[in-house]
Amino acid sequence: MDISTTGKILGKDEFLKLFTTQLRFQNPLNPMDSTEFTAQLAQFSSLEQLTNINEQMNDLVLFQNSLQNTLATTLIGRKVKVAGEEVYLKDKAEINYTLPQDVSKIKISISDSSGKVVREVNLGPETGGNKTYVWDGKDSHGATLPEGNYSITAGAYDAGGNPVEATTAVWGTVTGVTFENNITYFIIDGTTKIQLSDVKEIS
Question: What percent of the chain has pLDDT over 90?
Fold first, then answer.
């Protein structure tokens, strides 16, 4: 007797029923071989353990989701630092970037929703580490830009002119929380939706 028959997996209740039926109808003059009997008991024990582990894992996932949802609601109104390449402008915007090493120059490029570059800022040489640039909300001609989302990129180069990877992050305010397909999302500044794992820092 095997746990699986014709490609279908038996549950523990079906397995136990089949096992006890086999015991009831065995020939007393030719009882079940002890080796086979032991193997079937081992199968049943393994099935029971796997079922218990699966139930415990489900309970753990539900508990983790509950904790995550509780944490999410407590962050409404708080400022969070989020890794990404989009910033929300409201009068001004804080742009954070990280350099893995010293660079000879770095340039921040800011684009509007159509992809048009509206501002480029050359920051010159920088040492490695976490840096911050506060954008005043103006374009390259000094005109004040409307409130909304803008894309940002950071281009950095070492002393030999070789590109250096710079990662960007922005600060925003958690204005709401939504739950979709058992996943918790934050709404940042009323527009951007991110997962909890995207949050790098909480202020």
Answer: 30
